[in-house]
């Protein structure tokens, strides 16, 4: 019985000693690995920040370019070349472009009804019926204004109008030639008669 108790305590002691020699399941801290991981995270964050800043700068540049292009558009006529339109039509449609900021267009102090605010294109109708077109030279002054009433741009143009009726009253080239021919025939007849009288007097 004493031997059994001795072996039992000996076995228990060896078991306890072997258990103490085992390494516990613990998580070890490696400063190098954690440092590299933190550095990689920091670099990724910086890259994302740089990309966001680059995208923001690109969007800003595009917006500025759009504004610049919109402002670059000048008030101009595209329906005819030069500053004067010569016409025999009693109704004429004049068209052109204007800055996008244009809120109101006026011609000789009167607002252009055909213009829509915010549009880059415009149309103006000059006609005898509307009372803004008369026989001869007609001068027009156009002004573009923004929402605050600030003048954006201006231009002047002229319409030289001659009605078809007045054009028909002008002598044609054919009538002139006939008139000259008639005068020439009368002159030759007069010379012939004059020479004949002279010959008769000599006889």
Question: How would you describe what is shown here?
Answer:
The structure is a single chain. The model has no long low-confidence stretch (mean pLDDT about 75). Strands 2-8-7-4-5 form a five-stranded mixed sheet, with no helix packed on it. The chain contains four helices and eight strands. A hairpin with a 5-residue loop joins strand 7 and strand 8 (about 150-160). The protein is of the alpha+beta class and about 200 residues long.
The strand count comes to: 8
Radius of gyration: 51 Å
**What is the CATH architecture term of the domain at 76-166?**
Sandwich
What are the segments in which pLDDT stays under 50 over at least 5 consecutive residues? none
Which class do the helix and strand fractions yield? alpha+beta
Task: Estimate the global geometry from the Cα principal axes.
Answer: rod-shaped
- Assembly form of the protein: single chain
How many individual helices?
4
**Average predicted local confidence, pLDDT:** 77
List the helices and strands and how they pair.
Elements: H1 2-21, H2 31-72, E1 76-77, E2 84-87, E3 91-97, E4 104-107, E5 110-111, E6 121-127, E7 136-145, E8 151-161, H3 164-168, H4 173-202
Parallel strand pairs: 2-8
Antiparallel strand pairs: 1-3, 3-6, 4-5, 4-7, 7-8
């Amino acid at each position: 019985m004493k031997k059994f108790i001795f072996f039992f305590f000996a076995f228990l002691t060896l078991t306890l000693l072997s258990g103490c020699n085992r390494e516990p399941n613990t998580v070890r801290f490696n400063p190098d690995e954690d440092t590299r991981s933190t550095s990689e995270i920091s670099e990724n964050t910086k890259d994302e920040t740089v990309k966001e800043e680059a995208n923001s700068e690109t969007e800003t540049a595009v917006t500025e370019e759009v504004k610049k292009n919109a402002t670059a558009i000048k008030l101009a006529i595209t329906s005819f070349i030069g500053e004067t339109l010569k016409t025999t039509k009693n109704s004429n449609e004049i068209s052109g472009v204007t800055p996008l900021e244009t809120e109101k267009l006026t011609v000789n102090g009167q607002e252009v009804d055909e213009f829509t605010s915010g549009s880059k294109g415009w149309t103006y109708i000059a006609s005898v019926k509307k009372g803004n077109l008369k026989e001869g030279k007609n001068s027009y002054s156009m002004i573009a204004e923004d929402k605050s009433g600030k003048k954006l741009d201006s231009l002047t143009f002229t319409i030289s109008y001659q009605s078809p009726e007045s054009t028909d009253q002008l002598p044609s080239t054919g009538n002139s030639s006939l008139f000259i021919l008639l005068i020439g025939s009368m002159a030759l007849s007069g010379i012939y008669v004059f020479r004949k009288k002279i010959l008769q007097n000599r006889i």
